[in-house]
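Per reviewer request, we include the raw input and output of the structure prediction for the construct analysed in the revised manuscript.
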Amino acid sequence: MLPYEDLPEFPTASPWCQRWRKGQHSWRHVRDGGFDARLYQVDAIREDEPGKEFVLAHHYSRSYPAVKVQFGLYNISGGERQLSGVAVFGVPVSKAVLTNPLPELQPYTESLECSRFVLLEECPGNTESWFLARCFDALLADGVRGVVSFADPVPRRTASGVLVMPGHVGTIYAATNALYTGRATARTVKLLPDGTVFHARTAQKIRRREQGHEYAVDQLRVLGAPRPQPGCDPAVWLREALTSVGARNVRHRGAHRYVFRLGRTRREREEIKVEMPVLRSYPKQPDPEPMVR
């Protein structure tokens, strides 16, 4: 059995905006301002441009999701285009992530998940709302009418206690009038010693020997897991490997789910059906812990 952790959640309302560089977080206060739209451009990232490399280098998860389209925020103040941020819109692990909140939109074409959103620390406060709005304009022009996004309030720490990710705040969702539809399903998350998540889908690939399971096995072997022996039960090997590398279980009460309806007018946006209950107020503090009797 892996050890369990129950970490306190991060407050989801804050006047601070999160920034990243090489997996390390920093903050910009919204009142600091300083954003000048004339100094930035937003364009779709071509296959020959380093969007994936940017995300892997700077996002705390050190992972890259299945992508439909991604956009880059380019700083042009110095006369050259410098990539300062990336927004990734793509395919979630389950179609239900899109169809449950947006049942009348065709998943993967009319609805997408915003799975990565990374800005470097030099981006002023309020940059994210302008960047996201430009992304939505481009998505709408391509027929996308809905976007689902999640804010994870649970912090990530390494096995030695070093903070990797403090938890997401909801500043960008309030600033862009997203619809708050409550929490995703509560679950147990497996954390590796470096503070990254060992996803359930990755574990499933190993157990079923699906395409890509070799990469998942190598991920654990780099951390010290033994080599799988020929003919071994992959599920048994996985349990032993997670124990040997020092993985931990973290109780997760569910990420906060937000929905964006895209349209040229308010009427077009409001015509898009949202199946889940829309809560009037954004979450501002962690939910109270259940009482133990």
